[in-house]
């Protein structure tokens, strides 16, 4: 069975070893190796790239930010040229984004979870959820999941249903 894994920012920060955002680095790297050995296809959503870049730019002194940003750029360039262990998600078109924009107020207004009653779903997370839903349709015979350290996104995991 093949698996499609969308990588959330919380995981990518650890894979990229971003200082002060990498507390789960060892576990994430071990899990990455396990998923890779199982033949998992890793997809890097655009929101993950943007959010990771934001965290890098807001983190540490200038030398650390620059070093981390250079490592980040190298990984992203590899993904753009299909040489990285993950590929980029398809960029949404204007109509798709407009649909997400229309849905955003409802997602922002609802509690993110029973334990997170003072925040709703961010637009970045909503775009990752929409990418997950797109993958469910495109890869209907595959397990599809969002790999996240955020319990709110961990619920997005669809196993293959055999008839």
Q: Which CATH top level class of the domain at 3-91 and 135-158 fits?
A: Alpha Beta
What is the CATH fold-level name of the domain at 3-91 and 135-158? Rossmann fold
Mean pLDDT reading? 91
Spell the H/E element sequence: EHHEHHEHHEHE
Main sheet: strand order? 3-2-1-4-5
What are the segments in which pLDDT stays under 50 over at least 5 consecutive residues? none
Helix content class: 40-55%
Number of extended strands: 5
Short summary:
This protein has 163 residues and is α/β, with parallel strands linked by helices.
Structure description:
The protein is of the alpha/beta class and 163 residues long. It has a domain at 3-91 and 135-158: Rossmann fold, CATH 3.40.50. Helices cover 53% and strands 12% of the residues. It is built from seven helices and five strands, in the order βααβααβααβαβ. It has helices at 9-15, 25-37, 46-57, 62-80, 94-109, 123-138, 151-154, and strands at 3-7, 41-44, 86-88, 143-147, 157-158. A five-stranded mixed β-sheet has the order 3-2-1-4-5. Helix 3 packs antiparallel against helix 6. The longest helix is centred in the middle third of the chain and has 19 residues, at 62-80. The mean pLDDT is 91.
Give the SSE layout.
Layout: E1 3-7, H1 9-15, H2 25-37, E2 41-44, H3 46-57, H4 62-80, E3 86-88, H5 94-109, H6 123-138, E4 143-147, H7 151-154, E5 157-158
Parallel strand pairs: 1-2, 1-4, 2-3
Antiparallel strand pairs: 4-5
Name the features:
Rossmann fold, five-stranded mixed sheet, alpha/beta, 163 residues, globular
